Amino acid sequence: MTDVSGSTALAALDAWAVRHLQRPESWFGASGTKVTGEAVAAHLQAAAALMKRENWDPQLYAPSSCRTLYYALIQTAADGQGDDDTRDIIRDLLSCVLASATGAPYVYYEAWNEHATRTLHDVLLACDAAAAVARQYGPGPLAAPPQVEPGQNR
Fold it and tell me: Going by fewer Cβ within 10 Å, which terminus of the chain is more open, N or C?
């Protein structure tokens, strides 16, 4: 696999990925909620820690085993270490990082994770790289949204 370690991935992001990740709308989850880069990075790191702790190596488990990055993201969200919005942004973020690292025009992280040659080390490197990119390009702390009184327009 092409190296996707944090510093290499930051340097290797192609121009399209950089432009995409710099767009503010890239950091809104499916619910319409804006998410910080730190929240995305924390969810990725929690999923990676779970996979490492439990040795969820793609070489040892079939995709149907529920021991993949996808399921690690779901499980850590259920444990309060992320949510559907961070997971939604992670899907797009991993696509950018992996496509830039591999030179492919698009990479779907679930298919990448389930490839027969994928190792736990590869997955952990991708998570670390994506977390670093989230911190680099994602929004910082968000201000509380303005309160709208009943009958008041935005």
Answer: C
CA–centroid distance for 66 within its chain: 18
Partner residues linked to 28 by β-bridges: 34
**pTM reported for the whole predicted model:** 0.84
Contact 61, 67 (CB under 8 A): yes
Using one digit for the tens of pLDDT, what is the confidence trace for 119-146? 999 999 999 999 999 999 999 987 666 6
Q: Are 25 and 115 in contact (CB under 8 A)?
A: no
Which token pair is 68?
């993949």
Spell out the residues 6+ positions from residue 76 whose beta carbon is closer than 8 angstroms to its own.
Answer: 43, 46, 47, 50, 82
